[in-house]
From TrEMBL:
InterPro entries per the UniProt record, alphabetical: YjdF-like (IPR014509)
Name used for this protein in its record: Membrane-spanning protein
Transmembrane spans: 12-33, 53-72, 79-99, 114-135, 147-167, 203-221
Keywords: Membrane, Transmembrane, Transmembrane helix
Species annotation: Anaerorhabdus furcosa
A Pfam family hit: DUF2238
């Protein structure tokens, strides 16, 4: 029991997720070469090159995203709490490895909705962290009201959610991918409102997750509680 407590869970989870993404990238790179470009008439449904291309780029993006917190800490001299890092890494694992590589987006009901709601909340907490860092800076004297900070955190999360949807739309068009899920897994294209459903649902649940965290943050600041303290960034010299 004592050994379990001494185990560095942050490091263990990081290594596990990074290894999963690297191994997946190598395997998917091979499948990109041997997979058919299209499904011929009469053939049973199988993944094609565009499917593996999406997974390959998502895995590469995940690997880059894994090292960003360390770069951010060194570049801006901040401390990212372990709770935030663990949640961030688990989110990447669920979104990329389980969602794309293991097809949870298609096989597990509401998987995409759950992740977007969670990401909206995380981005809202990130918005609070940025304001907190500015408040800790001697170069930028600030004393913002709890309501303004909550609105900023909400808008920050929504903006990043919109940018993500623009990214998905762009690469769907450029590389012939299906990140916005306008096609079913068997290649059937959705029409009209059904084709927009995934994008609009993502934005709505992003907003819902961000709203919940923004309200919690507002009440926390208003009542001088520390409910978001464990996920907020800190200046390195304040350690």
């Amino acid at each position: 029991m004592k050994k379990l407590k001494e185990l560095n869970w942050e490091k263990f989870i990081f290594i596990f997720v990074m290894a999963s993404l690297i191994i997946s990238t190598v395997f998917i790179g091979y499948k990109m070469i041997v997979a058919p470009a299209t499904i011929e008439a009469g053939m049973e449904y199988a993944r094609v090159k565009s499917d593996y291309t999406l997974m390959f780029f998502q895995c590469l993006l995940g690997i880059v995203a894994m090292v960003l917190p360390s770069i951010f800490e060194k570049r801006f001299k901040v401390i990212i709490p372990s709770y935030m890092l663990i949640l961030y890494v688990i989110f990447l694992y669920c979104a990329i490895f389980l969602g794309e590589v293991r097809s949870y987006y298609y096989t597990v009901n509401h998987w995409d909705t759950i992740l977007h709601t969670f990401s909206g909340g995380m981005l809202g907490a990130l918005g609070f962290s940025f304001v907190s860092l500015l408040n800790q800076s001697e170069k930028v004297p600030m004393n913002l009201s709890p309501l303004f900070v909550a609105i900023f955190a909400f808008c920050f999360a929504i903006t990043l959610g919109v940018i993500w949807e623009i990214y998905e739309f762009t690469f769907d068009g450029v590389l012939g991918l299906n990140m916005q899920k306008f096609m079913l897994e068997d290649g059937t294209q959705l029409i009209g409102r059904a084709a927009l459903m995934d994008t609009m649902k993502d934005l709505i649940v992003d907003a819902a997750g961000a709203l919940v965290v923004s309200v919690i943050g507002y009440v926390s600041m208003k009542t001088q509680k520390d409910w978001l303290q464990k996920v907020q960034f800190k200046r390195a010299h304040l350690k």
